[in-house]
Amino acid sequence: MERDPTPDVPLLAGMAGLDAGRSQTSHQNRRALLLTRETDTAEFEALAATLGIDIVETIFQRGKPAPRVHLGRGKIEEIAEQMGMRNEGHPWHGIDLILVHHNALPRQLVNLDDALGMEVWDRVRLLLELFTQHAASVEARVQVRIARLLADRSILRELVHRETMGERLGYGAGGRTGWRSVMEATQFEIARLRRRQKKFSRSLAERRRQRARSGALSVGVSGYTNAGKSLLFSALTGKPVLIQDQVFSTLETTVGRMEKSPRVLLVDTIGFIDRIPADLLDAFSATLREALTCDLLLLLVDASDTPNELRRKLATSRRELFERMEDEVGPQTLILLTKADLCDEEDLRKAVSAVEEVGLLKPLIVSAHTGAGLEELRAAILTALHGPPLTLTLSSGEEPLAALIARVHREAMVIDVMTRKDKTEIRGWIDEASAARLEKEHPEQVEINS
Predict the structure, then answer these.
(1) Do 10 and 19 contact (CB within 8 A), yes or no?
(2) pLDDT (tens digit, 9 = 90+) per residue, 425-449?
(3) Do 78 and 134 reside in the same domain of the chain?
(4) Rounded Cα gap, residues 91 and 153, in angstroms
(5) Whole-prediction pTM value?
(6) Is 223 left (phi over 0), alpha (psi -120 to 50) or beta?
(7) Distances, alpha carbon 69 to alpha carbons 86, 96, 122, 129, in Å
(8) Number of folded domains that form the chain
(9) Crossing angle for the helix pair 374-386 and 229-237, nearest 10 degrees?
(10) What is the tens place of the pLDDT at every residue in 268-280?
(11) Which residues 6+ apart lie within 8 Å of 321 measured at CB?
């Protein structure tokens, strides 16, 4: 019999307010105040907009984050005073959420909550709420639950410390005690979910082994969130998947066979984002491993981004990928510039230059929306996996020629077919195992040349 993970005090995993009475499950049309020390908040605001949160005003203050409350104490006191005056007609009327454009320390979150008397989210907690909204499968929800509990644990440690020292708790604690027992229950729940996650990891590993034994090769589709991974996956496989112009619309692994290809599987997985704590992303390790253990990796970059944004997102994606690779070398990687339909020639030229400036090979340019560049991408994938295309000469004999031709079309990506009396030449890509079987089974009828 499993223990109750919430014994004495209501605990909502990852919610920035441990008091269940203050929490909300839907954030559509919530009004928020954004606190920042950085001028560029566009990405953060996009994350909030995905949840339907309306940022009423942004409070900016220069300098390094204050150790206790992120912004200066005087600024926080000013905000608290205005919060006390937000009756109907006040610009801040209806605000019920404070957003911090920063990965805040636990004590900063607790102190801000205490000072402003309102639910407080930092960047991590905003991401966690997005993960929760988009987790569709059971295993994705388990991964998100682990990530949320890990975030809760950091807050609980601060509350336990304050309880031990006899300080005022804050952060929605409402004067309650007994947080140490909640901490223990949280640890127990994390351990239980991680055991389940290990079973899931073993299941995924077994599926990878089965695919390898069948001779299928796999291609991981990776990149910064909202780079167009799911749309490209759908365009190459013909498999419908959830496609939204939103960050983190994909949290689980989707596998599909690439059309017009000799047993090539594409693996679509979670996207990356800047400044996401390592332990939070580690909660999705089983999902990420699916892409990292592939035979070829596609690294997608949004060509419609500015060169500076493109370089930043590319650097983040490469860092997150290569830090998690078990093999120091890692799989061969192709860089793709996506969403080419949103760019003119000058935009694409700048995007290509931005990729080459960081020491990478010239990227392929594609648009999954219009189909531009997809055939060239298929050819690049198959050349990377199988080498240059081969010419298969099929002759009449014991096996009907039509049956051999049909088999090659099933097992290869055919570029060209030429028929001459009792022979047919087919040029295309075919995996080594299939080619070897054809020659072995029909040595008098099949000849393969480069």
Answers:
(1) yes
(2) 999 988 888 888 999 999 999 999 8
(3) yes
(4) 35
(5) 0.80
(6) left
(7) 22, 18, 12, 22
(8) 3
(9) 80
(10) 877 888 888 777 7
(11) 222, 272, 291, 292, 297, 299, 330
